[in-house]
């Protein structure tokens, strides 16, 4: 899974997004990209979802909150479980590519 080109300027040398975009549209794009990491039909503890997102972004809590608020992810009232919501209205690209094994795998090597 490759980070969209429009977000690569926010990635550090280790392949992590350490500073979030200022524009809300870019934050939404980043949250949608992270949503692809969440397996449909699987319930995650808060720790599991945090670990999943934290491998790629520093502000994992904001990304999780954005996905909950837009209805892409639902959670138990007490925050004990999170799950991806599949909706006909959502346009989320399928995660067809293999998942990166390390955060720095999200950066494509420069073409020569």
Describe this structure in words.
This protein has three helices and three strands, in the order H-E-H-H-E-E. It is globular, with a radius of gyration of 14 Å. A hairpin with a 6-residue loop joins strand 2 and strand 3. The chain starts with 23 loop residues before the first helix and ends in a 28-residue tail after the last strand. Residues 90-102 and 107-112 have low confidence and may be disordered. It has a domain at 42-86. Helix content is 28%, strand content 7%. With 112 residues, the chain is an alpha+beta fold. It has a three-stranded antiparallel beta sheet with strand order 1-3-2. Helix 2 (46-54) crosses helix 3.
Spans with pLDDT under 50 lasting ≥5 residues? 90-102, 107-112
Number of continuous helical runs? 3
Radius of gyration: 14 Å
Could you say which overall geometry the principal axes of the C-alpha atoms support?
globular
Number of strands: 3
Strand content: 5-15%
Order of helices and strands: HEHHEE
Strand order of the biggest β-sheet: 1-3-2
Percent helix range: 25-40%
Distance between the termini: 21 Å
Could you give a short account of the major beta sheet?
A: 3 strands, antiparallel
């Amino acid at each position: 899974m490759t980070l969209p080109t429009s977000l690569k300027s926010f990635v550090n040398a280790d392949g992590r997004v350490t500073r979030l975009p200022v524009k809300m549209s870019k934050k939404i794009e980043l949250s949608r990209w992270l949503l692809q990491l969440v397996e449909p039909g699987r319930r995650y503890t808060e720790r599991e979802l945090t670990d999943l997102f934290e491998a790629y972004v520093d502000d994992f809590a904001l990304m999780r909150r954005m996905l909950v608020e837009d209805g892409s992810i639902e959670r138990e009232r007490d925050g004990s479980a999170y799950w991806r919501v599949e909706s006909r209205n959502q346009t989320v690209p399928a995660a067809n590519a293999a998942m990166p094994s390390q955060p720095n795998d999200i950066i494509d090597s420069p073409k020569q």
